[in-house]
Design goal:
One of its GO terms (molecular function) is acyltransferase activity. With 229 residues, this protein is an alpha/beta fold. It is built from two helices and 23 strands.
């Protein structure tokens, strides 16, 4: 029997999940979406109705929820709000695309989204409400904390630690035994070879702290950031 599913945040990520579910329902039956945007009320997104604002969640507690905001801190805020509306910790779905590779030695927390082409090799631990965009590679003993976002093409060496709500831009890479801090940002295409501290933004090859005014002679591009939306 299919499990009713409500997507929260009518984002590009939500439409990607809906497109995947159209080919393989993965045991879910989509009921619709919730979003606070006034212009979305009464419309459809990806062929499914916007059921109302987040406050309507209390009327759908028989369903599972999947928070599809692209930025981890936004997902965390939404989950806090849904908790106040009565959504339990086990009231969230986990979506793993049929073309993702997740062996039995790996763990994925509730509420996470793993899109097509993503590969977890062995003994990888992915937390709650994590998003892995297409073609992410997580190798042995990696750990990705709650609400982290891994954009398309991200590649982690072995034993990498990614902190809560960190954001890794498209095609960025992280050397083995390296840590990405809490709420840190690694820019698009960056190569991280040293620990990235909490709350900092690093860019370039090799990755360095982002500066508002470029220093003459530096080889990294302070504009090489992926969208956080």
């Amino acid at each position: 029997m299919s499990v009713p599913l409500v997507l929260v945040a009518a984002s590009g990520l939500a439409r990607e999940v809906l497109a995947a579910l159209a080919h393989d329902g993965c045991g879910f039956e989509v009921r619709g979406l919730l979003d606070d945007a006034p212009n979305l009320q009464g419309t459809t997104v990806g062929g499914f109705p916007v059921l109302g604002t987040l406050d309507v969640a209390a009327a759908h507690l028989d369903a599972r929820f999947l928070v599809c905001a692209g930025k981890g801190s936004s997902r965390a805020s939404i989950v806090e709000r849904l908790t106040r509306l009565g959504v339990a910790q086990d009231g969230y779905a986990t979506f793993v695309h049929p073309r993702a590779s997740v062996p039995g030695t790996c763990r994925i927390g509730c509420g996470s989204v793993i899109l097509a082409g993503t590969v977890l090799t062995t003994d990888v631990n992915v937390g709650r409400h994590v998003v892995a965009m297409p073609n992410v590679t997580l190798t042995h003993d990696d750990s990705v904390a709650d609400f982290a976002t891994l954009c398309a093409g991200v590649s982690l060496g072995g034993s990498v630690r990614v902190g809560r709500a960190a954001y890794l831009g498209m095609n960025s890479s992280v050397r083995e035994h390296t840590t990405v801090g809490f709420d840190a940002v690694l820019g698009m295409g960056a190569a991280l070879v040293a620990d990235l501290p909490d709350g900092q933004t690093w860019v370039g090859v090799p990755a360095r702290p982002r500066q508002s005014t470029p220093v003459t002679g530096t080889t990294y591009d302070t504009t090489s950031m992926g969208s956080l939306s």
